[in-house]
Amino acid sequence: MTRLLVSVLDERRDPMFPARLNQPSLLTVEKIPQPSRGNKGSNILSPQNPDRQKQNPDGISPPVTDHGKMPNMKWSFTDSHMRLEEGGWARETTTRELPISTELAAVNMRLEAGVYRELHWHNEAEWAYILKGKCRITVLDVEGGSFIDDLEEGDLWYFPTGFPHSIQGLGEEGTEFLLIFDDGNFSEDSTFLLTDYLSRTPKEVLSKNFRVDQRTFDTLSQNEKYIFRGTLPGGLEDDRKKVNQSKYRFTHRMLKQTPIKFPGGEVRITDTKNFPISKTTAAAHVMINPHGLREMHWHPNADEWSFFIRGKARVTVFAANGNARTFSYQAGDIGIVPKNNAHFVENIGDEPVEMLEVFRASRFEDFSVEQWLAQTPATMVAEHMNLTGSRKEEFLKNLSKEKIAVKPPLRKVKSVPELRVCEEYELVC
């Protein structure tokens, strides 16, 4: 939103001013980003897509620090093809949609209450995050132990490659979740499904294998069921008593972790240190307060695959050799940052940014630019940055040897007229 400039006095003369202070101004207009900055660029005369332009302001009018040619590192699930099924849906983002995402692929899936994602297994390991609602998962380990658990928003599961499993929606609304697979070329269409397998096996073999009459299999579905309606399960403990229980833990309560608090937000990290079975996927749940900053950093052990759950952010990716490109993100968007590429995540909105950082790695690792400089001899830092005098002293003094992963916004000094208005109308400014 761009606010047209008027004098403070004119606003105070408006009898509706106090009521309007917490509402969109009558002098507020929504501006469609145009490819211009200072004396460079110009407006667009050809047909435009205003909604897209407002979602991508840093692509339309990039910062002057952007330079060179870099691949696209952004995708929105809105642009992924929807597979509609009985009581649910699925959409995926793979190298087909986002070619640079070679390490990880993702599926966003919805199951209504009682609806199954049928019994199946994958070539890839599966890591999942519950976005909304509740579900029940089942998984069999290689020792014949069964693990059954109920999950809700903020919980995770991890199924190693080949481990057979299922998912079923619970509660009133069912569930919606994010699936991450440790291969960017993964596709849900290549899943090993129980119904598909049984329908491709001769009935006489099924009869021998399960020791029942062949006619038992006359009603088998000849098509995969994939997502379909079923009966809501009974109590969790009742189901657990009916199986040989696994000694392994395949689920984790990520949002119930005690967060690491920073001045600009908080972080929760889940990897093999606190979720041992998740050997190929590590993740961080990050909250960035309004106008805060996920600090300048890079990851040495894996590409970062990010999913934005809420808020608006911009990310500049530095790829060495003078190459940098800025991307704008909002809820439902996916971002990629290649391994060792430096970047930041800036909250450019008035609500918190909530995001997942996911990696094809057993451990979460990152390097902080500030911590690096703080732990480097001061003279070396100053001479690299051409710092002298008071600016040098101020910069070196403010460097933190401890990592501050999420930084607060800089405090802005308000003008005298603004402060007077706040005082007259008893506003918190």
UniProtKB/TrEMBL annotation:
Composition bias (Polar residues) maps to 36-50
Q: Where is this region: Disordered?
A: 29-71
Q: How is the cofactor bound?
A: Binds 2 manganese ions per subunit.
Q: Name one GO molecular function term.
A: metal ion binding
What are the binding positions for Mn(2+) 2 in this chain? Answer: 297, 299, 304, 343
Work out whether the entry's keyword set contains Manganese.
yes
Coiled-coil region(s): none
Record InterPro entries: Bicupin_oxalate_deCO2ase/Oxase, Cupin_1, GPI/OXD, RmlC-like_jellyroll, RmlC_Cupin_sf
Q: Per the UniProt entry, what are the Gene Ontology biological process annotations, in alphabetical order? A: oxalate metabolic process
The protein's UniProt keywords, in alphabetical order, are: Manganese, Metal-binding
Q: Where is the active site?
A: 357 (proton donor)
**Binding residues annotated for Mn(2+) 1, in chain numbering:** 120, 122, 126, 165
The residue ranges of the Cupin type-1 domain are 85-218, 252-393
Pfam families found in the cross-reference section = Cupin_1
Cofactor names: Mn(2+)
What is the protein name for this chain? Cupin type-1 domain-containing protein
The record lists the organism as Helicocarpus griseus UAMH5409
